[in-house]
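Escalation from tier 1.

The customer reports that the assembly of two entities below gives different structure tokens on two consecutive runs. Tier 1 could not reproduce it. I'm attaching the input and our single run for tier 2 to review.
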Amino acid sequence: MPLNKADIPGAHNIVRQTYPNGMIVLVKENFSSPSVVIDGLLRAGAADDPIGKEGVSAFTSHMLMRGTERRTFAQIYEEIEAVGATVDVSSGINVTSFGGKSLAEDLPLVADILADVLQHPAFPEIEMEKERGEVLTDLQERANNTRRMAGLTFRELLYPADHPYHRSVQGYPETVTVITRDELINYYRSAYGANGLIVSIVGAVKAADALRIWEDKFGNWIGAQVDRGVPPSAPRLIERREKRVDIPGKSQSDLVLGFVGPARSALDYPDARMANSILGVFGLYGRLGARVREKGGMAYYSYSQLEGGLGPGAWQAVAGVDPANVDKAIPLIQAEIKRMIETKVTPTELKDNKSYMIGSMPIGLETNDGVAGIILDMELYGLGLDYLINYPDRINAINAASVQAAAQKYLDAENFALAVAGPN
Amino acid sequence: MPKTTKRPKNTTPQGNGVLKTVLPNGLTVVLRENHNAPVATFWVWYRVGSGRERTGITGISHWVEHMLFKGTAKFPGRKADQVVSREGGQWNGFTWLDFTTYFETLPAEKIDLALALEADRMVNAPFRPRDVSSERTVIISEKQGGENSPRQLLSEEVQAAAFRAHGYGHETIGHLCDLQTMTRDDLYTHYRTYYAPNNAVAVAVGAFNAQDMLRKIEKSFGKIKHGPAIAANTAVEPEQRGERRVSVDGPGTTSYIELAYHAPAAKDADFPAMVALDAILAGASSLSIFGGGTTNASSRLYKALVETELATDVGGSCIPTMDPYLYGLSATVRQGHTPQEVEAAFDREIDRIVNEPVQEAELAKALKQARASFAYGSESVTNQGFWYGWSEVFADYKWFETYLDRLAAVSVADVQRVAQKYLRRGNRVVGYYLPK
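Tier 1 run:
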């Protein structure tokens, strides 16, 4: 029983509605389970954080759940948790995501709470200090976490200092300490609004009912998000930039080695994704897994990932290795990158990876969360509602030359950003 | 084509569409049709985990699990890996206290591949010395990665202090000295002892016909011989007489605290009341292996520890196990506060739930949360396969199917009774992680 075309989310079964206030709502019915998932976003993110105030966007998103004009923090969570639902708001670099999940009978409650926290936050001072303390403790933990520090340092090396991707979404202890309530409120006023909001609702609810519930709660929300356009591009590195962060007392070092990659909407993104799959995803971490983990026995994890996103997200290789093996693992990763650039991938690799990308679609679409996420991506990145219908054709159009072209365009065996965090 | 074995008895679906049977070679089979999506999952569970490992070979179950990903004559090297991925599948293995398990989730029409693969590696893994050697360093690397986490260092110490007779006292990954010295023959002996149909449970959930699936399983696994009888794990942890306290010094600037109480096994009649107690104290646990449970900001401990700014998070852990394990509570100490202050706040809440009945509304909330979590978890065949198999290991699949009913039967008095019985100072280990 292969995936029936009629069941694949597409223009024929996704209801898409735009509203005068600028929001876009997409609904896909699925009555095979009694839950409903809401997955949405606003075009506001840490890229807007002023210099010296890094963390404002993330702090703001967390404060929304800490009290509104109608509900206290305790009331919000009591209502949500009493029905086993979840609601969350969190900021990334370019977007602020919001969402919820509940049994279908509780969808009106979840929509009401999301409307309340997004439209009427109160920013209570006492809650602000609680939140600040939690963030500062988290940043303290980050400073002692090899994986997080390698990731943070990698971005600082890869992107120029004036590029938004250079900076931490969560901020830094010195910036989070000085953020004021007025700054959060000003940020909220400038960044939050219905114009640009996208939401995908998937589950055991009739599309007309979902639209009515959402429109009822959000239809009158006025508020324009600033038009931010496309995130700035970032230059390809022309030197090797390396930094080692000493975290004494740890048993393992983490390393991140990588490059500026394509945006999700780039024409060659599928080719880069294919190259990435062969390099460090397919099977047990692709070629990197075979070389560093299987042959070298050097790491428990050694893989690659391609961020995509609205702007030039990173394309990176990641490994966790014995501190004594860091300098042995790096050349192995370089060698695999070199091979991606210099030699075409084999017909078998290409065939296997195409088959994997196309064949894994039914599992990705099994849950309401999976479907809601992909529908949101279709809208955000302009992939079109028939993206999944056309997906096999797009994957099959990839060839060894296009994969190599993507590798050559983005990867470089000598010039890259390399961050290592662990005991020196 | 191999001859199909004699049809086992009792192959009609029972209750909620589940077909359970035992093949002549001892393999337990649990099948559940689910036609929501064109996918299927197949699991093989072996009734062996770190809980029955002795000193000298700690970590052996997990290492054997790794060796089963190193290929066989039929699926050499990474071939199995490639064929599963090529079909768009997911596969993995897990080892824990009571089990070692393997699964594949695939487009439903490709699920035969999973049966072929699992039947093959139940008996044909070669454990080549060079693979043992390279995997030794991979596993030591995995252990080192875990030890980078202060919480992990603390829970390892607490677990060790809680058990001195039972194998639950060491981490599944094992002790470094054992990982450095275990031999290929140790690993192979473990494999040949515990990897046999009579010590295994095969579970399939997904878009298939259960009778067809049973025939396929018989065909793939029916010829595998019944292994030697496996002795029961005779370890019984003696009653703890008095509070035990441990501390771990380590890198960093943040302190952590963990409390662990000896708790009832999954089959114990007290277990559902412990689940309710945990939900009220620390928030409901997720019934999905992929996480995604609800938040716990309305729980008693969150209000007492996080709202009061003593801690930045708090959580509970109530795990179904074959033998009595631990009910764990843990928290991250907020900057400017001490583990002692957090412990005192924990104790005030524990004393309260021991001395005062909980509210009916709190119980109703725990039940509704479980109902929602159950619904979320059932969207994924992989998650369902996990629960059918895991519950077979520590009880039987009906434990999972009747979970909500048993939780609904828990009374306010039950919660107070188990609180009084288990949440005693003398029944616990208190651990602090203190940054150097």
